[in-house]
Amino acid sequence: MKTISRFALLALIASLAACSVLESDKIDYKSAGKAPTLEVPPDLTQLSRENRYAVPGGAVTASGYQAGIANAPSIPTAVGNIGDVRMERSGSQRWIVVNRSPDQLWEPVRDFWQENGFLLTTEQRNLGIMETDWAENRAKLPQDIIRGTLGKLVDSVYSTGELDRFRTRLERTPNGTEIFVSHRGMEEVYNTARKDQTVWQPRATDPELETEFLRRLMVKLGVSQEQSKLLAATSAPARTASVANVGGQPVVQINENFERAWRRVGLALDRTGFTVEDRDRSAGTYFVRYVAPNPDKKEPGFFGKLFTFGGSGKTEGPLKYRILVKGQGEASTVAVLNESGAPETSANAQRIVQVIADDLK
């Protein structure tokens, strides 16, 4: 095999691929630990553990010990329930509700990601947040003949050109825990006309991939395969969100009450790469960090409007903001405040509300 050139080996793989079947409905992740390391933007560095988040008697999410959390009202939604586990959905967003405490769920959820081929790069139990490493779905490679014939050799020379990362957030409720899973993706693309160099750039969030991992997590928590597929298929009417200007301040308007808006905004922040440092559900506030884009650099999409992955482009340092969710009846607004809590009207605020609105549509 040492005398076979890389080109010849790839040609052999291509010929075998013609005889194999691509099982696109399977998931088989492998951590990208041995792949070229992606440059980590300054806004994605792991936060240090701070004592002010700690609660005597056990680790809980930040919202778990906020005073004055009222029981959520009955809300029309797509809900499937098996035992103490159910799935809820609003538009393209889904999450799991479990009648167990975050303390009871942390280790099972942690084991779940490791069993699915991921390494965890962030574990903030005091905030109820864990995040995986970038990993590749090897099931997207031609299966059976190639994998059976060449084995591990394929892994070293053949790539899907895509990497995925998942963030899990556990949030305490009066009756248990809500579990949110958000996806972020990268793809390898040519950056020269000669196609001799590649770079990694963000690709769109995949709600179906989020749903599949939520379904599998339900199985981990005791739901059967058949029941989990039935619950994941439950549909719900789409909810709308739009950007408006209220008193000179850009805001997102959502036709949902506070409880629903709070959940959906939190998932949108996770999806779009904000670093949530803390949250206060009783005040409707997320404390986030944001990296403004380079105004001289082309902005390829909503990820590009937040930060730059790799390349030589420079961005400003991370800025701290508060995302305020305020409900009034069956409608809510989302506004951006500065670090001290004053209304923010800058170009960054406009970008942030637009990113949130785009994900909520």
Features:
single chain, 361 residues, TATA-Binding Protein, 2 domains, 6-stranded antiparallel beta sheet, 16 strands, globular
Q: Could you characterize the architecture of this molecule?
A:
By secondary structure, this protein is of the alpha+beta class. It folds into two domains: about 1-240, Alpha-D-Glucose-1,6-Bisphosphate, Chain A, domain 4; about 240-360, 2-Layer Sandwich (TATA-Binding Protein). The chain contains eight helices and 16 strands. The protein has helices spanning about 5-15, 100-115, 145-150, 150-155, 205-220, 225-230, 260-270, 345-360; strands at about 30, 80, 85-90, 95-100, 120-125, 130, 135, 160-175, 175-190, 200-205, 240-245, 250-255, 275-280, 285-290, 320-330, 330-340. The strands form three sheets. Strands 2, 3, 4, 5, 6, 8, 9 and 10 form an eight-stranded antiparallel β-sheet that branches. It has a six-stranded antiparallel β-sheet with strand order 11-12-16-15-14-13, covered by helices on one side. Helix 5 runs antiparallel to helix 6 (about 225-230). The longest helix is centred in the first third of the chain and has 14 residues, at about 100-115. It is globular and about 55 Å long. It starts with 5 loop residues before the first helix and ends with a helix. The model is unreliable at about 1-25, about 35-80 and about 295-315 (pLDDT under 50).
Q: Tell me, rounded to a whole number, the average pLDDT.
A: 75
Low-confidence stretches: 1-24, 34-79, 294-315
Question: How big a fraction of the residues is strand?
Answer: 25-35%
Q: Please, what is the oligomeric state?
A: single chain
Order of helical and strand elements: HEEEEHEEEHHEEEHHEEHEEEEH
Query: How many domains would you count in the coordinates?
Result: 2
What fraction, in percent, of the residue positions are helical?
10-25%
Provide the CATH topology of the largest domain.
Alpha-D-Glucose-1,6-Bisphosphate, Chain A, domain 4
Give me the count of strands: 16
Query: How does CATH name the architecture of the largest domain?
Result: 2-Layer Sandwich
The global form is globular
Cα separation of the termini = 52 Å
CATH class value of the largest domain: Alpha Beta
Rg from Cα: 22 Å
User: Quick one: biggest sheet?
Assistant: 8 strands, antiparallel
Structural class, by secondary structure, is alpha+beta
Helix count equals 8
